[in-house]
Write a structure and sequence with these properties.
Layout lengths: L1 H5 L14 H8 L2 H9 L12 H4 L3 H8 L6 H8 L20 H5 L2 H22 L1 H11 L26 H6 L8 E8 L2 E5 H12 E2 L8 H8 L4 E3 L10 E2 L2 H16 L6 E8 L5 E8 L7 H6 L4 H10 L4 E8 L2 E8 L7 E3 L6 E8 L2
Parallel strand pairs: 4-6
Antiparallel strand pairs: 1-2, 3-5, 6-7, 7-11, 8-9, 8-11, 9-10
Length: about 375
């Protein structure tokens, strides 16, 4: 194995069954060859129907693979996909014929019982991965008496949801569409009036997903709001076409924090934003401050994440996306992988000088 790798063998090449060497030897239980493959950059997320972790025949190999991650955005996306798969929770954010409610669930209470059962199955993992999103989802779906001190909405004060909105049960039991239910009291976002539960639902969807159909939660709008005082080139960004599950409140906060950092370099007011869809359908977004570079070497930049702004950014992005930076100091050019859900080194030296200090976010779908 060592000899093959030294002679340029692709450690991620798939055989005619769609299996990589890592998948094959994890399944066989060969921990020595698994160790060699991991040390040489084998992709732990590659899969045919299952990944190497799923195929691993013993716990030792599973632990070896898991140790290469410090971040789990794929798990969070899978949980949030409960709002897409054809089960009860999906229809809390997607319109359907509530005239069929009695046929499907007996009545509104039967429907909410089905939602509770589905949520209970995901609650513990969701709370571990993202306490912030877990509280938003629980309040929107199941909280019967939400606190007036809490709002799941980042745009205005909203704490109501399916279980706490007075009159919604009777409305649905009479066969009417919950999206058309009139709120007891209108909610305002600036001068915009929110008058129906359907409009509230749209706001909730924007809290858990970057969306192409809602301007306020469109990715280009999220970036534009954070970088209002910069000259930003979005010409190749394709941000408006990107859609994925995440905590939009946390990601917006990270971008605002990065903007404050960038303002310290008043001589570097030009930014470039790009995005691309990778082979696994993940979305990689690059944000570059042209002409700005690190003030210390790669090892020093690796330590930055232990406190201060970078520690806050890491905390906010954990389990939302992978996060790296690319920059240079003197004659050293490098990439630092702060949050990674794949088998990558923390410091990767680059052969070419970046255009400037670059943040790289990789979101999964």
């Amino acid at each position: 194995m060592h000899l093959l790798i030294q002679n340029g063998a692709d450690v991620n090449a798939k055989n005619n069954m769609g299996m990589t060497p890592l998948m094959h030897y994890a399944f066989k239980g060969d921990d020595k060859l698994v160790k060699i493959l991991l040390e040489n950059g084998a992709n732990i997320n590659a899969k045919s129907e299952m990944t190497a972790f799923d195929l691993a025949s013993d716990d030792k190999i599973k632990e070896m693979i898991q140790s290469k991650k410090n971040n789990h955005p794929q798990k969070l996306v899978k949980l949030l996909s409960n709002f897409t798969i054809d089960k009860p929770i999906k229809y809390t954010t997607h319109e359907w014929d509530f005239g069929e409610l009695q046929k499907e669930y007996g009545n509104f209470e039967g429907y909410m019982s089905a939602i509770k059962k589905q949520f209970d199955d995901m609650k513990n993992e969701l709370e571990t991965l993202s306490p912030n999103l877990c509280k938003k989802v629980y309040t929107f779906l199941l909280e019967t008496e939400p606190s007036n001190e809490y709002s799941w909405c980042s745009k205005t004060q909203i704490n109501l949801g399916w279980s706490s909105l007075k009159g919604l049960k009777e409305w649905c039991d009479s066969g009417k569409n919950p999206f058309a239910f009139k709120l007891p009291k209108a909610i305002f976002i600036g001068r915009k009036q929110i008058a129906t539960f359907g409009e509230v639902i749209t706001l909730f969807k924007g809290e858990i997903e970057v969306r192409t159909d809602t301007k306020a939660f469109n990715l280009e709008s999220i970036f534009s709001n954070a970088f209002v005082n910069f000259k930003v080139d979005y010409s190749t960004s394709k941000l408006a076409t990107r859609q994925f599950y995440t905590d939009t409140q946390k990601f917006s906060a990270v971008l605002s924090q990065i903007a404050k950092q960038m303002h310290m370099r008043e001589d570097c007011n030009s930014l470039e934003v790009s995005s691309m869809e990778l082979e696994d359908r993940s979305i990689e977004i690059k944000l570059t401050q042209i002409g700005s570079y690190a003030t210390q070497n790669s090892q020093g930049m690796l330590e930055e994440v232990k406190d201060g702004d970078f520690a806050d950014i890491k905390a906010n992005l954990t389990n939302l996306c992978d996060w790296s930076i690319e920059s240079g100091f003197e004659s050293e050019y490098f990439r630092i992988n702060y949050l990674h859900s794949n088998n990558v080194k923390e410091i990767v030296l680059l052969s070419e000088k970046p255009k400037g200090f670059t943040h790289i976010f990789r979101f999964y779908r």
